[in-house]
C-alpha cells in the first residue's frame, strides 16, 4: 500500500484530494467539522516535512456551474484555524497555476470547488432522447475530463488521495489524476486507515462475525447482503427493510414500509442464509405508532401482528435484548443502518440500544466497524464514536466496498 508514512515532502508540492463537503448553516458556518479534522494529520505531515500543500475538494452538487452556495471560500478561515497556517484561496480551481507555483515550504492553498467544472465528474448535462445519445455524450466527456485532471496534476510534484468519502467516484480528482503521477501517488492517513480497517473486516475477521444491516429498503442493501453471505456467522436485519422480510413470512405489518416486489427476494435471501449456515435474526417485537411523529400514540406488539392504521417504527424490548446477546458474543461486528426512526426520540431506543451494546462489545475486545450516515449519526449523537473500533467517513464508498465493488479512488493508487 502506497502511504505517506515514510515519504519526506521537504521541498515538494503535494496536491491532496480531501473531502471537505461539510454541512453549512444558512449563514455559511460549518455545523460539523469532522471531515476537516479527519484530513489534518495528512496535511500537517506535509507541512511539517517542509513541503507545501494544494488542497482540493468538492462541496454539494453545483452540477458543473459556479454557485456561491457551494463555494469553498466559506471554509477557508476554519481550515486555517485547524491547520495552524493562513490558508490561501484560489477562486478558480482551473486557474491556480500561478498561486500553486508561488507556494513556499510550509504554505497551503485551497482550490475552489472542483465541481464548478463539469469535467470533474465527467457527467454529460442536459436531456437526451435515447440511451445511445447519453452514452455518446458521456464518451465525449472522457477527453475533457482527462485534460482537466492533467491540468490539476501540473500544479504539484505528487498526489495524495485522502478522501475516502469520494473513493467510489471515478472523477478527475479521485481517479483520473493519479495516472499523471505513476510513481508519486499515495494514500493519506485517513484513506490508509479506512482501507486497512475494511480489509480487516472483510478478510479473515475474528469470529463470530455479526453483521447488523438496516435501512428503509431491501433493494438498497441487496449487494451488501449477498456479498456478506459467505463471510458472516450472524445476520441481524433491522430498520424498515425488515418488514419486507416479515411480510414475506406471512406476517401482518399494518402501514409499515414494505417493498412488495421484493418479497420473493427476501425469501430467497433467507433460504440462502439457511443453506450457508448463517444465523439470521429478525426482531420479534416492534414499537408501533399511529402516526409519524414524536407525539404519536405507541404500543408494543409482535412484529408480525401490526394492526391496520399503525406503523412499526422501532425494535421492541425483547428484540433489543436478543440483539444485545448476539452482539456481546461476537468478535467482529459490522453495523450499517439504524433500528428504527431514530431521529424521532420516541422511536430511538432500539438504535441507541444497539449503539451502546456495540460500544460495550468493543470494551471486551470485539472489532466493530460502523458505517452509513444514519449509523454514524447515531453513535455521534450518543457520544460513543470514540468507543467504536472504526467509524467510516464514507457512506457510499463503504457501501460499495461492502458490496465487493472495486473503488476507483483506491484502485488508482494501487495500480
Description of the structure:
It is built from 15 helices and 17 strands. The chain has 415 residues and is an alpha/beta fold. The strands form four sheets. Strands 3-4-2-1-5-6 form a six-stranded parallel sheet. A six-stranded parallel sheet has the order 10-8-7-15-16-17, with helices on both faces. A three-stranded antiparallel sheet has the order 12-11-14. Helix 9 (242-248) packs across helix 10 and helix 11 (317-328) packs parallel to helix 12.
Secondary structure topology:
Elements: E1 13-17, H1 34-49, E2 52-56, H2 76-83, E3 88-90, H3 97-101, E4 108-111, H4 118-121, H5 131-140, H6 142-153, E5 158-161, E6 185-187, H7 189-202, E7 209-213, H8 222-228, E8 234-237, H9 242-248, E9 252-253, H10 263-276, E10 279-281, E11 285-289, E12 298-302, E13 305-306, E14 311-315, H11 317-328, E15 332-336, H12 349-363, E16 367-370, H13 373-381, E17 390-391, H14 395-402, H15 408-414
Helix pairs in contact: 9-10, 11-12
Question: Briefly, what is this?
Answer:
The chain is α/β, with parallel strands linked by helices and 415 residues long.
Mean pLDDT score: 95
Please list the strands of the largest sheet in the order they lie side by side. Answer: 3-4-2-1-5-6
Can you count the helices? 15
Query: What is the count of β-strands?
Result: 17
Looking at this protein, list some descriptive labels.
15 helices; alpha/beta; 415 residues; 6-stranded parallel β-sheet
Amino acid at each position: 500500500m502506497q502511504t505517506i508514512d515514510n515519504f519526506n515532502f521537504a521541498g515538494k508540492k503535494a496536491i491532496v484530494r480531501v473531502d471537505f463537503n461539510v454541512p453549512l448553516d444558512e449563514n455559511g458556518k460549518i455545523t460539523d467539522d469532522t471531515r476537516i479534522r479527519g484530513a489534518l494529520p495528512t496535511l500537517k505531515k506535509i507541512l511539517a516535512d517542509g513541503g507545501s500543500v494544494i488542497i482540493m475538494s468538492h462541496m454539494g452538487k453545483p452540477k458543473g456551474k459556479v454557485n456561491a452556495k457551494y463555494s469553498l471560500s466559506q471554509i477557508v478561515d476554519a481550515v486555517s484555524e485547524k491547520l495552524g497556517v493562513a490558508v490561501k484561496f484560489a477562486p478558480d480551481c482551473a486557474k491556480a497555476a500561478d498561486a500553486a507555483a508561488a507556494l513556499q515550504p510550509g504554505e497551503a492553498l485551497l482550490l475552489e470547488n472542483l465541481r464548478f467544472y463539469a469535467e470533474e465528474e465527467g457527467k454529460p448535462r442536459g436531456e437526451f432522447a435515447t440511451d445511445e445519445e447519453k452514452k455518446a455524450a458521456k464518451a465525449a466527456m472522457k477527453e475533457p475530463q482527462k485534460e482537466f485532471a492533467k491540468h490539476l496534476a501540473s500544479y504539484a510534484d505528487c498526489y495524495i488521495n485522502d478522501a475516502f468519502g469520494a473513493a467510489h467516484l471515478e472523477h478527475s480528482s479521485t481517479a483520473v489524476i493519479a495516472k499523471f503521477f505513476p510513481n508519486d501517488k499515495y494514500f493519506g492517513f485517513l484513506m490508509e486507515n479506512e482501507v486497512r480497517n475494511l480489509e480487516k473486516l472483510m478478510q479473515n475477521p475474528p469470529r463470530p462475525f455479526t453483521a447488523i444491516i438496516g435501512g428503509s429498503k431491501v433493494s438498497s442493501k441487496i449487494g451488501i447482503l449477498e456479498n456478506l453471505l459467505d463471510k458472516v456467522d450472524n445476520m441481524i436485519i433491522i430498520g424498515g427493510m425488515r418488514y419486507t422480510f416479515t411480510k414475506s413470512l406471512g406476517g401482518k405489518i399494518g402501514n409499515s414500509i414494505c417493498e412488495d416486489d421484493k418479497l420473493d427476494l427476501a425469501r430467497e435471501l433467507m433460504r440462502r442464509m439457511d443453506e450457508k449456515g448463517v444465523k439470521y435474526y429478525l426482531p420479534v417485537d416492534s414499537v408501533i405508532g399511529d402516526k409519524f411523529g414524536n407525539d404519536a400514540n405507541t404500543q408494543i406488539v409482535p412484529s408480525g401482528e401490526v394492526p391496520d392504521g399503525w406503523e412499526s417504527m422501532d425494535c421492541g424490548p425483547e428484540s433489543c435484548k436478543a440483539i444485545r446477546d448476539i452482539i456481546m458474543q461476537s468478535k467482529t461486528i459490522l453495523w450499517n443502518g439504524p433500528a428504527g426512526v431514530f431521529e424521532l426520540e420516541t422511536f430511538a431506543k432500539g438504535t441507541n440500544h444497539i449503539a451502546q451494546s456495540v460500544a460495550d462489545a468493543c470494551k471486551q475486545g470485539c472489532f466493530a466497524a460502523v458505517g452509513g450516515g444514519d449509523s454514524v449519526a447515531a453513535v455521534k449523537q450518543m457520544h460513543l464514536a470514540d468507543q467504536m473500533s472504526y467509524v467510516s467517513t464514507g457512506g457510499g464508498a463503504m457501501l460499495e466496498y461492502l458490496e465487493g465493488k472495486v473503488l476507483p479512488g483506491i484502485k488508482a493508487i494501487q495500480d
